[in-house]
């Protein structure tokens, strides 16, 4: 169990189990592609993805720096007041709004979310932030979704997804309350 | 193009924040820059695995039959199938949208496609393993996973309620 507020930085291991599990899945998929489609296709994937990887790098570095700098600039009390455990519906609405406008990929949102957790943000608010970013975040929608699915469909999907982040936050808060009540009855 | 705008926006935020910290104290700026860079180095191998992995998993996935499945079963069952398929689809910026677009073209129901892309956005299981679990406290990750379970259904239902514009 992770302490909620006291540990801004977690202990790091070079290899953790999620990474190990993923390596196994990826190696199997890569072997399968090599076996089915031959070496040309196999190296095509490496080539295509190294371009993507190179384009991601500056965004990831920016995300990590933003997380580190925000931690210093935002006073802990402010974070606790706005998105802390007792921030109520307002905290969840604020997180959903922030999720819509934060640019970048998952690799930018997770370090920022983790930094906020370390500064005393409520877990439910952080759940809202991530849900908002993944389902209605503007940068993701504009950069990646629109070219594939077209404006009409994307607008429709976006409107349908608009309340999801707030719902996720409220559900997360209810679950947390239940967990806490069970831990100390 | 928009890609470039996002990157610039991120770096403008970095510069503005760095300026704010520098005004308070320069050693503090150096220290936090080092902290951010350490995190970045920690993430690089995970990102490489994640990017390469989503490429291979996507290549191994029979995209046509995924699209076919999204179209072939309708109603609540179809939405559940679409949701599970979305959750298992690897992250990375394009895989899920590409399959969703193929499914739409292949005649899949729009609610299923919305359930699929919502579940993919929320879970993208390989992304959860590469980025989220190593960075976030596990308790919060599982909290998010549980809280998100009903969302693909709600999105599909709301989409039907709104009606296609």
- Helical content of chain B stands at over 70%
Please state the average pLDDT score of chain A. 84
Distance between the termini of chain B: 28 Å
Q: Which class best fits the helix and strand makeup of chain B?
A: mainly alpha
- Helix fraction of chain A, binned, reads over 70%
Overview of this structure, please?
With 185 residues, chain A is an all-alpha fold. Chain A has a domain at 58-183. Chain A contains 8 helices and no strands. Chain A is globular and about 60 Å long. Chain B is mainly alpha-helical and 165 residues long. Chain B has one domain (2-162). Helices cover 85% and strands 0% of the residues of chain B. Chain B has 9 helices and no strands. Chain B has helices spanning 2-24, 26-60, 63-72, 75-88, 95-105, 110-122, 125-135, 138-148, 151-162. In chain B, helix 1 runs antiparallel to helix 2 and helix 4 (75-88) packs parallel to helix 6. Chain B is elongated. The two termini of chain B are 28 Å apart. At the A-B interface, helix 1, helix 4, helix 5, helix 6 and helix 7 of A face helix 1, helix 2, helix 5, helix 6 and helix 7 of B.
What's the short story on this structure?
Chain A has about 180 residues and is mainly α.
Q: Layout of SSEs?
A:
The complex is a heterodimer of chains A (185) and B (165).
Chain A: H1 17-73, H2 76-83, H3 88-101, H4 106-118, H5 123-136, H6 138-149, H7 151-161, H8 164-183
Helix pairs in contact in A: 1-4, 3-5, 3-8, 4-5, 5-8, 6-7
Chain B: H1 2-24, H2 26-60, H3 63-72, H4 75-88, H5 95-105, H6 110-122, H7 125-135, H8 138-148, H9 151-162
Helix pairs in contact in B: 1-2, 2-7, 3-4, 3-5, 4-6, 5-6, 6-9
């Amino acid at each position: 169990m992770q302490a909620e507020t006291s540990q801004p930085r977690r202990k790091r291991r070079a290899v953790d189990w999620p990474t190990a599990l993923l390596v196994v899945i990826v190696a199997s998929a890569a072997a399968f592609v090599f076996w089915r489609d031959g070496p040309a296709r196999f190296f095509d994937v490496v080539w295509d993805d190294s371009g993507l990887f190179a384009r991601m790098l500056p965004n990831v570095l920016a995300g990590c720096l933003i997380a580190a700098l925000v931690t210093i600039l935002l006073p802990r009390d402010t974070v606790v007041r706005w998105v802390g455990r007792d921030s109520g519906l307002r905290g969840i609405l604020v997180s959903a709004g922030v999720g819509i406008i934060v640019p970048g990929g998952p690799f930018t949102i997770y370090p920022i979310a983790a930094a906020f957790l370390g500064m005393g943000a409520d877990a439910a608010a952080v759940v809202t932030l991530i849900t908002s970013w993944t389902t209605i975040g503007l940068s993701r929608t504009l950069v990646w979704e629109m070219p594939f699915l077209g404006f009409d469909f994307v607008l429709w999907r976006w409107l349908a997804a608009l309340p999801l982040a707030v719902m996720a936050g409220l559900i997360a808060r209810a679950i947390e309350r239940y967990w806490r009540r069970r831990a100390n009855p | 193009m928009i890609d470039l705008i996002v990157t610039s926006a991120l770096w403008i935020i970095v510069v503005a924040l760095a300026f704010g910290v520098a005004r308070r104290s320069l050693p503090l700026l150096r220290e936090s820059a080092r902290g951010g860079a350490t995190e970045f180095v920690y993430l690089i191998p995970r990102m490489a695995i994640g990017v390469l992995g989503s490429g291979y998993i996507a290549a191994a996935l029979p995209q046509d039959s995924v699209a076919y499945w999204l179209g072939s079963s309708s109603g609540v069952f179809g939405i559940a199938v679409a949701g599970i398929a979305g959750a298992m689809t690897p992250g990375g910026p394009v895989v899920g949208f590409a399959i969703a677009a193929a499914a739409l073209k292949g005649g899949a129901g729009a609610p299923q496609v919305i359930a699929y892309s919502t579940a993919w956005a929320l879970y993208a299981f390989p992304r959860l393993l590469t980025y989220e679990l190593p960075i976030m406290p596990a308790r919060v990750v599982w909290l998010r996973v549980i809280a998100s379970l009903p969302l693909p259904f709600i999105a599909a239902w709301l989409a039907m309620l709104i009606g296609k514009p």
